[in-house]
Amino acid sequence: MFRTGFLVRATHTLLTWVITLILFLHNTDLRKCEERGELLLPVLFFLVVVLSVLLYFAVSLMDPGFVLTDTVKGVQGSDEEMESMIPQPSTPRLRRCGYCLLQPMRAKHCQTCKRCVRRFDHHCPWIENCVGERNHRWFIVYLLVQLLALLWALHIALSGISPTITWELWFRVNGFLLAVLGVVGIFSMVVVLLLGCHLYLVSINCTTWEFMSRHRISYLKNCGSEENPFDRGVFCNLWDFFCICRTVVWEQMYSRTRNPTNSV
Predict the structure, then answer these.
(1) Catalytic-role residue among 100, 110, 124, 130
(2) Would you kindly state where each structural domain of the chain is located, as residue ranges?
(3) What is known of its domains (predicted)?
(4) How do residues 41-68 score in pLDDT, each as one tens digit?
(5) Would you call 130 a catalytic residue per the annotation?
């Protein structure tokens, strides 16, 4: 897995800087600004690219919310971690993972990472890491910055396309920029779709795994087709997701929603 992760991250980084170099070396708006001594636009674009790369590595390398195993939990487990493992009255029984230990609600075992992940969303091959409770918000921030960099790169690449007399000469002169337009265009569409889907799911407090496998998940399959026990409304869902940086005991929220009389 380490080897695969290294190759994926190295490829992403290399492709990012090759595209950036092409945009700076060709006769684009960036090059024209440099020649006029106007460095604000080139510096800002460079900083956006650097920020996107830093966020990529942050999301790729950070702990997505791995559930502590029995051995590690005995040494490092926090009180909050311990409390979240204890079944509360009127809550569904915690599932036992066949590989790890009791699973907190909304956690899932990732076959690639070989660990259980809190509030599991999906395993992303692009970052070669799971997207879960701890890095999901940063994954969306990364997508936003990456989309900004991609759309800006599209605009810059288009500014460098040179008109010529013949098609053959046109392709020869603009070949690298056309390749950049193709690659960046495809990635832009992928990021737009990813970002749109994730923002929608966040707004209803649902994960990709829950959305796709609702009929197989023990705590959701008995709910109505339109019922989501974790949905607190769009504003509260977005606020909790982006601004609340603590472990949530989903069993308690589930219990209050499904058994409102017990919480009075």
Answers:
(1) 124
(2) 1-62+135-254
(3) The DHHC domain is required for palmitoyltransferase activity.
(4) 999 999 999 999 999 999 999 999 998 7
(5) no
